Amino acid sequence: MQDDVVLTMRGICKYFPGVKALENVDFTLRKGTIHALMGENGAGKSTLIKVLTGVYPMDGGEIRIDGVEDAIVIRSPQDAQSYGISTVYQEITLCPNLTVAENMFIGRSPKGRVDWKQMEKRSGELLQKLGIPARPRQQLGNCSLAVQQMVAIARAVDTDCKVLILDEPTSSLDDKEVEMLFTLMRQLKESGVGIIFVTHFLEQVYAVSDQITVLRNGQLVGEYEVRELPQVKLVEKMIGKDLEDLSSIKKKESDAGEEFYGAQGLSSSESRPFDFHIGKGEVNGFTGLLGSGRSESVRAIFGADPVTGGTVKVNGKKVKIAKPLDAMKQGIGYLPEDRKRDGIIADLSVRENIILALQVIKGIRHPISRAKAEEFADEYIKALAIKTASSDTPVGSLSGGNQQKVILARWLLTHPQYLILDEPTRGIDVGTKTEIQKLVLQLAEEGKSITFISSEIEEMLRTCSRLIVMRDRNIVGELKGEELTQERVMRTIAGGGE
Amino acid sequence: MKKAKASKFFAKNSQLLIPLIAILLLVIFNLLRDPSFFSIGISANNRGDPVLQGNLVSILNGASELVILSMGMTLVTAAAGGQDISVGALAAIAGSVFVKVLKGGEVTGPMVLVAFLACCAVAMVFGAFNGSLVSFFRIQPMIATLILFTCGRSIAYWINGGATPTLESPIINAIGSFIPGIPIPTPILIVIVMGILFGLAFRFTTLSLYVQTVGINQGAARLNGVNTVGIKLLSFVILGVCCAVAGMIGVSRLGLINHETLLINIEMDAILAVAIGGNNLGGGKFKLLGSVLGAYAIQMLTITLYAMKVPSTDVKAYKAVVIIILVAMGSPVVKNNMSRFWKKFKRNHPAGEKEVA
Question: Could you give the ipTM of this predicted complex?
Answer without folding.
Answer: 0.86
